[in-house]
Amino acid sequence: MPNIDLLLGADPSRKRVVRTEPTQRRSTQRLDALLDAAAEIVDEIGFERLTTQMVAERAGASIGTVYRYFPDRVAVLHALRERSVRRYRERVAVDMANTELRTWWDVVDVALDASIALYRDEPGFSVVHAAQRETADDGTEPEFAHRMAMLIEAEFDHESSDPELRFRLGVAIELGDALINRAYEREVGGDQRYLAEAKRVVHDYLAEHLGSVHVAGSAA
After folding, report:
1. How far apart (Å, rounded) are the C-alpha atoms in residues 173 and 181?
2. Which of 19, 134, 152, 172 is most buried (most C-beta within 10 Å)?
3. What number of CA atoms fall less than 13 Å from residue 124's CA on the CB side?
């Protein structure tokens, strides 16, 4: 079984965007209700037009309740994105735990399928594409690419901390996400041509730059 903790590990230095962290179940449910409302609005009219007043009205809450957790609309969007990213990583981790990972492509394929599924099933997931990516501690590559690289290194006995692997995965993730996002902009259920092309482009790009390395070094 792959070490899925490599994907789920939290960055303790990451800045939290929620003004008041919920400590009780009722508060957690209230916060989730606000983010659920924001997600619905984002899907209906886009994140650019979302306001805190809209969130309050959709959630059936007072504007004061919204401001208890968020100082402004930007903080709402950041929190929604943070939740979406967390749910994406959890989905990837669960799917990888239930998949036989024979090559590096199996790892990437699971990540792409999880992204496709959440664009389809997770309200407001498009905010993941709209914001700047979190970077790893060295500030160079996207954090998720960094964690994917660590998992590939662990599973396939690749040389640890390979900057080339992180760079190529970072590029591949950006390519795949852009095409998947475009697929759901074109059709509610996702334009199948774009989804297929997303996988092909990512596969061909990584095969060109990493394929021989990881097939030769794989112990799986």
Report:
1. 12
2. 152
3. 26
Question: Among candidates 157, 147, 119, which has minimal Cα distance to 43?
Answer: 119
Residues in contact with 143: Cβ distance below 8 Å, sequence separation at least 6, in sequence order: 11, 133, 134, 135, 136
Cα 53 to Cα 36, 73, 78, 106, 159: the distances in Å are 14, 9, 17, 44, 51
Q: What is the pLDDT of residues 29-59, one digit of tens each?
A: 999 999 999 999 999 999 999 999 999 999 9
Q: Are 153 and 162 in contact (CB under 8 A)?
A: yes
Residue 89 clears pLDDT 70, i.e. is over it: yes
Q: At what angle do helices 73-97 and 143-156 cross, to 10 degrees?
A: 10
> CA 103: distance to chain centroid?
22
Judge residue 80's burial from the number of C-beta atoms within 10 Å of its C-beta, 0-12 exposed, 13-18 middle, 19 or more buried: buried
Amino acid at 21: E
Q: How far apart are CA 203 and CA 116, in angstroms?
A: 15
Q: Cβ atoms within 10 A of the Cβ of 160, count?
A: 10
Residue 74 tokens, joined: 């930007």
- What value does the CA radius of gyration of the chain take, rounded to a whole number of Å? 19
- Comparing C-alpha atoms, which of 111, 106, 66 is closest to residue 85? 111
From residue 217, alpha-carbon distances to 125, 204, 210, 211 in Å are 35, 19, 11, 10
Contact 120/191 with Cβ under 8 angstroms? no
- pTM to 2 decimal places: 0.82
